[in-house]
Automatic annotation (TrEMBL):
Residues 288-308 are annotated as: Disordered. It comes from Phoenicopterus ruber ruber. GO terms for cellular component: Cul4A-RING E3 ubiquitin ligase complex. It comes from the Eukaryota. This is Short transient receptor potential channel 4-associated protein. PANTHER family: SHORT TRANSIENT RECEPTOR POTENTIAL CHANNEL 4-ASSOCIATED PROTEIN, TRANSIENT RECEPTOR POTENTIAL CHANNEL 4-ASSOCIATED PROTEIN TCPC4AP.
Length: 733
């Protein structure tokens, strides 16, 4: 509506670079009956003005970039450019079937490219597009076209990243045929988009949310969440999981030929800010070339051939790593979802685990030259390099794959499975059903299974490496569930116990996360296993070492309480056995002797109850409550419960603060009932990990909470009337 003369006059002063005039021309040439022929040339004029800014934004430091303004993209949006392009793109959907308009692929590409660049540089554009559901769903239909696929995918990924409510995959027109039309390369890129649609929005800080808040939330959400519905939609697409498994396990050599590969890289380069990875690769390839040239006599000739042959290979590897990352992420989320068992069955059938085992050395844990990892302004160990992210994603997949599931034995090869059987026979105990039932045609092949390979790299990991946490978690999840002597011995034989103790004691590990994962793993490895305690004593063979070990345990009971629980449970079992070997270890082992002192158990119990409160309970520290309960259940078995409660009362008096521990414990146990007696709550974990029936857990809690002040086992009997503070109800505040 503004006159051309006015626009021209203001243009120079306002530094608009002619954008408003070009938009006016575009508007005139894009009316409903136009053939769009002129539009292309107008867009060709606008495009470079915007892409320069976008490139500057991606390559500059992000912070600096946000402070500077991007006048061209801002002007383009200010004068309605964004809405106009959306209208041009969606025009064919508005016109009746008879005279379908065809927009050329190049025009679509240009529109998408300009929209993407504007989204990158101008605040709020992406959010505005995200609010237009019709446009978001329309973009998915553009993905059927190979020529515009990458541009569409990138824009969709950006839009879904800021969308407030999650998109419903069911709403995408012809989702099934869309997915089946993708080649493997496109499917991998599509996984980047899917990731946003199947992950719960706030799972990142799951451990940090208080259980009170989570329970309240669960009462509100009765049905499955949108993410869960989307997961189910994906699983119903025929062949989807099979294709993901193929993608995850294909070798680099099976990827497409170099020519189309380099051409796609070129598109990538202009598109994704992940293209920064390729800069790093260029450098690596050049360094490799220089190295080989200095080693040879005929320098110049060799350098050229070397760069030429190596560049695509190292780029191919990086490309493949970025694909696998996305695919493993999607598989991992599905493995943790509601349809877990169905996904497990498919993943086993399509041999994901043996396939990953074959890639382990060459791709997943390959030896890389230092600079391959370094991106712009990042250091080598920063978690955002693809190499590192792939390793973490891979470890997370192993963790969710083996956690409480009998398919975990697919992580071994046939010889290793035979070894498990042999351990059971030698110890004269029945074999675990899951080992007997494992389908040998689906297990790992080669010299070693995945679990053993993981142990190997774990031992070589540098002390301060961030992988240690994930490695320990993955191995621990293999041991979780009902304690298996054979599984423990399999790992003990491979020196795992000594390695963990070396990290905790000799290298005096400082990282809280790593320590916690090592304590948890140590607990699972030693629980009820007399040989493990014998090995422990052999390694921790001086008072000085034992003191360091205790200091590490005491430095944070939230991190070490699972180990304290394991020692308490094991001690109780050993004391009830009449075996000469057990008796010998009981008398010699520093750790068991320490825990058999009543004063030590009381000290742990006192501190465990003292560090948690109903208002601060989370998924991470609720284990302290369960560990304190284990100590009291074992006391109840020996009819010592009144003695323990009386001692707690005396300890309160010593601290000059009567009632503060027992009142708190009373509230915690009431919460425990609310939390664990909920019909959806899975109590088998508590049973499996402690070998104490859930009925006994429930009874013990009821007895402790009894209102009868004459009962010797009721907490209220040990709180003086004056200090009673147990009737308050807790809410989410």
């Amino acid at each position: 509506q503004i006159t051309e003369a006015l626009l021209k006059e203001r243009d120079k002063q306002a530094k608009w670079n002619g954008i408003p005039l070009l938009l006016q021309k575009l508007y005139e040439h894009s009316h409903p009956n136009s053939d769009f022929s002129q539009c292309q040339s107008i867009l060709k004029e606008i495009s470079p003005l915007l892409s320069m800014e976008a490139m500057a934004f991606v390559t500059e430091d992000r912070k600096a970039a946000q402070e500077s303004t991007f006048p061209n993209t801002y002007t383009f949006d200010l004068f309605g450019g964004v809405d106009l392009l959306v209208e041009i793109l969606m025009r064919p959907t508005l016109i009746t079937q008879k005279k379908k308009q065809k927009i050329s692929d190049d025009l679509i590409k240009d529109c998408l490219s300009i929209l993407y660049n504007t989204c990158i540089c101008t605040e709020g554009v992406t959010r505005r597009l995200a609010e237009r559901n019709d446009f978001v769903l329309f973009l998915f239909t553009l993905m059927t076209n190979k020529k515009t696929f990458l541009q569409t995918a990138t824009l969709v990924e950006d839009i879904l990243g800021v969308k407030k409510e999650m998109i419903q995959l069911d709403d995408i027109p012809n989702l099934e045929s869309l997915v089946s039309s993708f080649d493997q390369q496109q499917l991998a890129n599509f996984c980047r988009i899917l990731a946003v649609t199947i992950s719960e929005l706030d799972t990142g800080s799951d451990d940090k949310h208080t259980l009170l808040a989570k329970n309240a939330q669960q009462k509100k959400n009765l049905g499955p969440s949108q993410a869960e519905i989307n997961q189910a939609t994906l699983l119903n697409i025929p062949g989807f999981i099979e294709r993901l498994c193929k993608l995850a396990t294909r070798k680099v050599s099976e990827t497409t030929g170099t020519s189309s590969f380099l051409q796609e890289l070129e598109e990538w380069y202009t598109w994704l800010d992940n293209a920064l990875v390729l800069d790093a690769l260029m450098r690596v390839a050049n360094e490799e070339a220089e190295q080989s040239s200095t080693e040879s006599s005929d320098e110049s000739g060799l350098a050229n051939t070397s760069t030429r042959t190596q560049l695509p290979q190292s780029m191919k590897i990086m490309h493949e790593i970025m694909y696998k990352l996305e695919v493993l992420y999607v598989l991992c989320v599905l493995l943790m979802g509601r349809q877990r068992n169905q996904v497990h069955k498919m993943i086993a059938e399509f041999k994901l685990i043996p396939g990953l085992n074959n890639l382990f050395d060459k791709l997943i844990w390959r030896k890389h030259s230092a600079s391959a990892l370094i991106l712009h302004g990042h250091n080598q160990n920063c978690d955002c390099s693809p190499d590192i992210t792939l390793k973490i994603q891979f470890l997370r997949l192993l963790q969710s794959f083996s956690d409480h599931h009998e398919n975990k034995y697919l992580l071994l090869n046939s010889q290793e499975l035979n070894e498990l059987s042999a351990i059971s026979h030698k110890a004269n105990i029945p074999e675990v059903d899951a080992v007997v039932n494992t389908d040998r045609s689906l297990v790992c092949d080669g010299k070693r299974g995945l679990l053993t390979r993981l142990l190997q790299v774990m031992k070589k990991e540098p002390a301060e490496s961030s992988f240690r946490f994930w490695q320990a978690r993955a191995v621990e999840s293999f041991l979780r569930g009902t304690t298996s002597y054979a599984d423990q011995m399999f790992l003990l034989k491979r020196g795992l116990l000594e390695h963990i103790l070396y990290c905790i004691v000799d290298s005096e590990c400082k990282s809280r996360d790593v320590l916690q994962s090592y304590f948890d793993l140590l607990g699972e490895l030693m629980k009820f296993n007399i040989d493990a305690f014998k090995r422990f004593n052999k390694y921790i063979n001086t008072d000085e070492k034992f003191q360091i070990f205790l200091n590490q345990i005491n430095s944070s009971l939230v991190d070490s309480n699972m180990l304290v629980r394991c020692i308490t449970l094991s001690l109780d079992r050993f004391e009830n056995q009449s075996d000469a070997k057990v008796a010998e270890v009981l008398s010699e082992c520093r750790l068991l002797s320490y825990m058999s002192q009543m004063s030590m158990r009381m000290s742990f119990l006192f501190r465990l109850i003292n560090i948690i409160h109903v208002q601060t309970l989370t998924q991470e520290n609720v284990s302290c409550l369960n560990t304190s309960l284990v100590i009291l259940m074992l006391a109840r078995r020996k009819e010592k419960l009144p003695f323990y409660l009386r001692t707690l009362q005396q300890m309160e008096y010593t601290e000059k603060y009567p009632g503060f521990i027992l009142n708190n414990f009373h509230s915690l146990l009431r919460f425990w009932q609310q939390h664990y007696l909920n019909k959806d709550k899975d109590s088998t974990c508590l049973e499996n990990s402690s070998c104490i029936s859930f009925t006994y857990w429930k009874e013990t809690v009821s007895i402790l909470l009894s209102p009868d002040r004459t009962s010797p086992c009721a907490i209220v009997s040990y709180i003086d009337e004056a200090y009673m503070d147990i009737d308050r109800d807790f809410s989410e505040e």
